[in-house]
Amino acid sequence: MTKTLLRAPFRADHVGSFLRPERLKKARLQKQNGEITADQLRKIEDEEIIRLVAKQKEAGLQAVSDGEFRRAWWHFDFLAELEGVELYEADSGLQFNGVQTKAHGIRVIGKVDFGDHPMLEHYKFLHQIAGDHTAKFTIPSPNMLLLRAAIQDGVYDSREELFDDLVQAYQKAIQAFYEAGCRYLQLDDTSWAAFLSEDSRQKIIAGGDEPKELAELFARAVNESIAQKPDDMTITMHICRGNFKSTFMSSGGYDYVSEIIFGGLNVDGLFLEFDDERSGGFNPLRHVTRDDLQIVLGLITSKYGELEQAGQIKARIEEASRYLNLNQLCLSPQCGFASTEEGNILTEEQQWEKIKHVINIADDVWK
């Protein structure tokens, strides 16, 4: 049995975002208040990302990310820089379990396309400092625009028309990241959470859609977006139920859309939340139809600092291996540590202990 994987996702991996250091939070606020320039902020971001990458290497990770340190949001920052899309001040934020995000939203105001996107430069900086490690970059799934964006009247006559432009924009994006050197790209996607509970499915119906048809549309959006990816590029997907200040947005197991997720998505790997009872059991893994699909079990929570019992995590990996060969399984935290710049409620020291916990357990399991 192979202990390590030579290609992502790795036995011990991570979702991508890390807690923002206080120095970076202060600098972003200073830039917002006009106290420092964009160049001064970028210099501080560069320095903090260099430190973060060094910490990831020191911890023993094979893949390193920039922690999403240049972003306020895991999704809006990327989507708002697509041509035809803008960020705007909304009436209210996104509702989580007892808290609400900043009142921001995105809207489509013109034909959607991918052009001179600033995150290409963000990736190039990460690539430059990754060295012998794999540079991992995260962007939101195309479904996040379909799910979250308001569409200005007169821009698109139908969702299918928007869909076609969006897919073409993502095809261009994937090729552009590849040409910049990216070989490990992750699509982050909370749209699947809309199908995981009866209440959320009823909301889809109330909005005029049929849940299974909408799920098929989301699968098409992903598959068509990545259809032309080069063979030596790994594209994974992280499916999330929401992550903001250690809270969540939705609950439910993967059962309702398990055949679509596990048998119908053409990604190379799936990062899945399995850290508590909200995520359901491993039974849906029986719908995995490919032996080249890696399933990354998010068994270590990023929402609080207390370390899980290693024996319990190993037992859960063994349970998952009853449905899928152990060689197709990997381990990670269930989500990033800071999907927004506010971050989850744990310390940086606890964050790194979580990462090391993942690595130590993976080393024991995949000897």
UniProtKB/TrEMBL annotation:
- Enzyme Commission number(s): 2.1.1.14
Q: Which SUPFAM superfamilies match?
A: UROD/MetE-like
Residues annotated as domain Cobalamin-independent methionine synthase MetE C-terminal/archaeal:
14-341
Q: What is this protein called?
A: 5-methyltetrahydropteroyltriglutamate--homocysteine methyltransferase
* Highest taxon, organism lineage: Bacteria
- Enumerate the InterPro entries for this protein: Met_Synth_C/arc, UROD/MetE-like_sf
UniProt enzyme class: transferase
Question: Which organism is this protein's natural source?
Answer: Peribacillus deserti
Please list the coiled coil stretches: none
Keywords from UniProt, A to Z, are:
Methyltransferase, Transferase
Q: Which Pfam families match?
A: Meth_synt_2
Which GO biological process annotations does it have?
A: methionine biosynthetic process; methylation
Molecular function per GO: 5-methyltetrahydropteroyltriglutamate-homocysteine S-methyltransferase activity; zinc ion binding
